[in-house]
Amino acid sequence: MNFWVILGLVGQFLFFMRFFVQWMASEKRGESVIPVAFWYFSIGGSLILLTYAIYRKDPVFILGQSIGSFVYLRNLTFIYRKKKGIAKE
Fold first, then answer.
1. Cα angle at 68 between 60 and 86, to 5 degrees?
2. pTM of whole model > 0.85?
3. Would residue 70 be called left, alpha or beta, if left means φ above 0 and alpha means ψ between -120 and 50 degrees?
4. C-alpha distances in angstroms, 7 versus 49, 56, 73, 86, 88?
5. Which residues constitute the domain of residue 35?
6. Cα 4 to chain center, whole Å?
7. Could you give phi then psi for residue 73, rounded to 5 degrees?
């Protein structure tokens, strides 16, 4: 295996971990929840897969991963804004 295949697999593993973390958190609480770690794994996996997609010159893959990264970052922004607002009260 070459560097790019390994990088792609690492990105895919991180992307998988977001689902695993969400599943475990939901099982623990007995309801559907999305922990903050889900968004970090999403960003990490997405950025690595975006790098891989750029190397492969795959416009469909590039578009999908680049848009997803913005959504994941935006969700983290909302989470941390809410925490700051709560801490100020």
1. 175
2. no
3. alpha
4. 8, 12, 21, 39, 41
5. 3-88
6. 19
7. -65, -40
Let me know how long the chain is: 89
Per-residue pLDDT of the chain (89 residues; tens, 9 = 90+): 799 999 999 999 998 999 999 999 999 999 999 999 999 999 999 999 999 999 999 999 899 888 888 899 999 999 988 888 865 54
Quick check: 1 and 25 in contact, CB under 8 A? no
Q: What is the number of structural domains in the chain? A: 1
Alpha-carbon span 17 to 50, nearest angstrom? 17
Calpha distance 46→36 (Å, rounded): 16
For the chain, the first-to-last Cα distance in angstroms comes to 54
Query: What crossing angle do the helices spanning 3-29 and 36-56 adopt, rounded to 10°?
Result: 160
